[in-house]
Please model this.
Amino acid sequence: MVYSASLNVRSTKNRDMIDITGDVAEVVGSSGIADGLVLVFTTHTTTGLYINEHEGGLVDDVESVLSKLVPPRAGYRHDRVDDNAAGHIQSILMSPSLVIPVEGGRPVLGTWQALFLAERDGPRSRTVKIKVMGE
Ligand code: ZN
Model:
């Protein structure tokens, strides 16, 4: 069986890290699927997904490393068109999708693992597609 859902995620800043762990767990719970996989996919070119600890200092550290690796407005050609090249390139360093095992009707995550949607060109309304597959 496959159960599909969409999350509408509203970012509030230009660069924002949004914890969607609870939303994804809720979709898995609604799916009725006990054992399988959940695919989480962002449909945008200036967002990325990652799994890591939700500790405020670490979230800020991830933000500052991304800014050092890909500083904004560093002479990118795409900035002439859209002024958001750093957001696109930072997104490429993450992933548009995550796959997480589902057991007992819940996503299997380690104690310190949380799912983040990383906004790189907000604030905006974003769509995250979810497919829960299994039985
Ligand atoms: Zn662009």
About this structure: The chain has one domain: 2-134.
